[in-house]
Amino acid sequence: MSNIIGYTIGILFVIGIVAGPAAGNYFFSRNIYYAFVDAKSVEGEIYDCHVLKSRSGSTINRSWAPVAKDVDGNIAKGSFGWKKKKKCTEMFGDKVTMTVSSISKDRNQINTFFQLWFMPLIMNSICIILYGAMIKGFLKKKRKKSRKR
User: Fold this and answer.
1) Residue 75 — left, alpha, or beta (φ > 0 → left; ψ -120 to 50 → alpha)?
2) How many domains does the chain have?
3) Does any domain span residue 143?
4) Does 91 reside within a domain?
């Protein structure tokens, strides 16, 4: 019975190590996919700030992100914010490029480096390094086993 529990925990651990970065990569890269597949690029202007949800539920950890609007009235909320509202309000009136979805208004987004490209770039780098290290370690272990025989 203890072998079954041990193997189950081991398998779940391996699945988490292998699937974890891929899930994170999907989570952060899906916005880029939506931007290329079903969105058009339009000019917008930042006119407001909104509060990004705090994971802890405390108002101390909240951050402020910009909200942009184009001439057709489409609204895009930013996903990257600042701790101080002043930094967000200083952006009022700035012209930005927005990706406006033809399928769902929830997929509208501000097309800036930090809003759309920064986190996918970081996650892709982590995945390449982590999966490269896993493959290298697996091949090293496989060569070691073949030498013993």
Assistant:
1) beta
2) 1
3) no
4) yes
Q: Are 67 and 46 in contact (CB under 8 A)?
A: yes
- Nearest Cα residue to 92 out of 42, 40, 50: 50
Identify whether 149 is part of a domain.
no
Tell which residue, 47, 32, 109, 55, has the closest CA to residue 77. Answer: 109
Per-residue pLDDT reduced to its tens digit, 52-66: 776 665 666 678 888
Percent of the chain predicted with pLDDT > 90: 2
8 A C-beta contact, residue 80 and residue 66: no
Give the distance from CA 76 to its chain's centroid. Answer: 17
The answer to whether residue 44 is domain-embedded is yes
Helix (H, G, I), strand (E, B) or coil at 50: strand
> 3-state DSSP call for residue 39?
strand
